[in-house]
Amino acid sequence: MSGRTALVTGGTGCIGRKICETLAEAGYRVAANGHPADANNAARWQEEAAARGLEIHVENFDAGDYEATLAGARAVEAAVGPVDVLINAAGITRDGRLVNLDPEDWKAVVRTNLDSVYNATKAVVGGMISRNFGRVVNISSVNGQRGQFGQANYSAAKAGVHGFTMAVAREVARKGITVNTVSPGYIESPLIMQVPETIREGIRESIPAGRFGKPEEIARAVLFLVSDDAAYITGADLSVNGGYHMD
Length: 247
Hints:
This protein is of the alpha/beta class. It has a single domain, classed as NAD(P)-binding Rossmann-like Domain (Rossmann fold), CATH 3.40.50.720. The protein contains 9 helices and 7 strands. The protein has helices at residues 14-25, 39-51, 66-79, 103-131, 142-146, 152-172, 190-193, 197-206, 215-225, and strands at 5-9, 29-34, 56-60, 85-88, 134-139, 177-184, 237-240. The protein has a 7-stranded parallel β-sheet with strand order 3-2-1-4-5-6-7, with helices on both faces. Helix 4 links the parallel strand 4 (85-88) and strand 5. The protein is globular and about 50 Å long.
């Protein structure tokens, strides 16, 4: 049993939920962050998890807002304990070709997908430094590695996530803190099911593994990176994409 405390931003989303559940099953005390607009769905999931014996604290705040994130992190630490492990998984899409991309859609995606990583990490890294231990895992995307048509905002933000990972990893490595990225490929989720079937099948055929990934496969990669077994891995980008993009 771990006994450590983990905070997962975007923890009430599809991949975030599986990360929270996997960490809880491994003995972590888990706090899931969700956006206040999704509070009702988060509460239902929390109840379902509790019925399966998984105690997950839910803290609703906008991870793209700096002050709200600082307050949310303080609330988590008061309720669950000092944050030893941070998973930055908050993310949205607002797709459109650059010529049609509204400035508000650019700002919204960068705010949620990249600013949130700064906000949450800044909120907890001081405590990690003082305790000489910490694990930070930032969820990027295969499209941050290779780019994607119609996703200039998303690809830029997700590429920025790994740049942040590498810089901060260098800053805190001597304090017993690792900072890594996980870059999922196309994962079975409500988002991929919204893609028209013909396009979706074309994507599937382009993946060497011949299938979409599962949220639990991302969660298990995260679980490894936050474990003691991964103590000598930092600044890395772990691709979990079925061979869709090889770097």
